[in-house]
Design goal:
mainly beta; 4-stranded antiparallel β-sheet; 11 strands
Length: 117
């Protein structure tokens, strides 16, 4: 079965950094647009950052100065580098691989990011 596999979450103090990884398993994601979403407890899921197959990136204003999205096509992976993490960044982070077919978009399993003292 095809899968999108996430890793890199964890617990860090405020000001810490994490790098999330999203990789394709039995699927080549290198030509696809990929997004990182997050969902905090009790809140709607929101798009945080996205990257196109050509490498163009978008990051929401609230984290633009701290987060960077990138990809390494040799590794069939997309990354979200998160620096200067704050408690409000605490959420489950999900990777999404966009496709053109209805209902075909692929989601990772989610990885928990917790920022606390």
């Amino acid at each position: 079965q095809v899968q999108v596999v996430e890793s890199g979450g964890g617990s860090v103090p405020p000001g810490g950094s994490l790098r999330l990884s999203c990789s394709g398993s039995r699927i080549n994601i290198n030509l696809n647009n990929v997004g990182w979403y997050r969902q905090a407890a009790g809140k709607q899921r929101e798009l945080v950052a996205s990257i196109t197959g050509g490498g163009s990136t978008t990051v929401i204003d609230s984290v633009k100065d701290r987060f960077t999205i990138s990809r390494d096509k040799r590794k069939n992976a997309v990354y979200l580098q998160m620096n200067t993490l704050q408690p409000e960044d605490t959420a489950v982070y999900y990777c999404k691989v966009f496709t053109r077919g209805p209902g075909d978009d692929l989601w990772g399993q989610g990885t928990q990011v917790t920022v606390s003292s």
